[in-house]
């Protein structure tokens, strides 16, 4: 476990231009704890130099090398009847990726969710109630937004609906799977936008900007309502 015990931290601040009171920033330490018993976020263990991860502000590895490290299903979907029922109801069978993630709500709260990616759609499932919260067809995804730094955040942009902002230590794999699945299904090259500042629609009438700043020992992330 020593590979997880670095001094890096990810600091998340939520703010609004029209909020005079502000809110205290929430900090996720590298032991994976935020003090509230929420899901652990450890740094990726994909190592250094030539083998550092793409989409994490560092060198991109060859695809063949990356795929050897990817397991796809990290929660054993076939052993979870409620997930199988959700997929069967939608006619989906091939799971490309499955894992627990953090999803940010329109109000800025973090919720534990299960992210499923099939060759046709993205599923967001509540692990506490076993309920399907959202299904997004891959064809509806316009692009993926993420920073140029080594953080865990990514946003899925869906023009016909509201967007998704999530955090996962397997961000690289998620982005790679989405790009490859979209190309396989439609021969469309999904855009991956790298910027340390980007906007996303957290709700029908809620636009937020997420800002990333490299600080000593980690990355500071600030979410602002526009």
From TrEMBL:
<feature type="domain" description="TH1">
    <location>
        <begin position="59"/>
        <end position="226"/>
    </location>
</feature>
<dbReference type="Pfam" id="PF06017">
    <property type="entry name" value="Myosin_TH1"/>
</dbReference>
<feature type="region of interest" description="Disordered">
    <location>
        <begin position="1"/>
        <end position="50"/>
    </location>
</feature>
<protein>
    <submittedName>
        <fullName>Myosin IB heavy chain</fullName>
    </submittedName>
</protein>
<dbReference type="GO" id="GO:0016459">
    <property type="term" value="C:myosin complex"/>
</dbReference>
<dbReference type="InterPro" id="IPR010926">
    <property type="entry name" value="Myosin_TH1"/>
</dbReference>
<dbReference type="GO" id="GO:0003774">
    <property type="term" value="F:cytoskeletal motor activity"/>
</dbReference>
């Amino acid at each position: 476990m020593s590979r997880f015990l670095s001094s890096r931290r990810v600091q998340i601040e939520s703010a609004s231009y029209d909020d005079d009171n502000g809110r205290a920033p929430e900090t996720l330490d590298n032991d994976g704890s935020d003090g509230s018993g929420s899901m652990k976020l450890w740094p990726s263990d994909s190592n250094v130099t030539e083998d550092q991860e793409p989409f994490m502000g560092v060198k991109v590895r060859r695809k063949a090398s990356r795929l050897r490290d990817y397991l796809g299903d990290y929660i054993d979907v076939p052993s979870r009847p409620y997930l199988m029922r959700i997929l069967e109801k939608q006619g989906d069978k091939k799971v490309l990726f499955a894992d627990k993630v953090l999803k940010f709500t329109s109000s800025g709260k973090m919720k534990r969710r299960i992210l499923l990616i099939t060759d046709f759609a993205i599923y967001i499932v509540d692990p506490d109630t076993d309920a399907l919260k959202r299904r997004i067809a891959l064809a509806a995804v316009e692009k993926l937004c993420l920073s140029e730094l080594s953080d865990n955040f990514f946003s899925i942009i869906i023009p016909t609906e509201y967007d998704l902002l999530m955090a996962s230590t397997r961000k690289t794999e998620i982005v790679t799977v989405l790009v490859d699945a979209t190309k396989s299904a439609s021969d469309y090259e999904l855009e991956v936008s790298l910027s340390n500042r980007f906007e996303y629609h957290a709700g029908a009438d809620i636009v937020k900007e997420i800002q990333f700043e490299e600080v000593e020992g980690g990355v500071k992330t600030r979410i602002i309502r526009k």
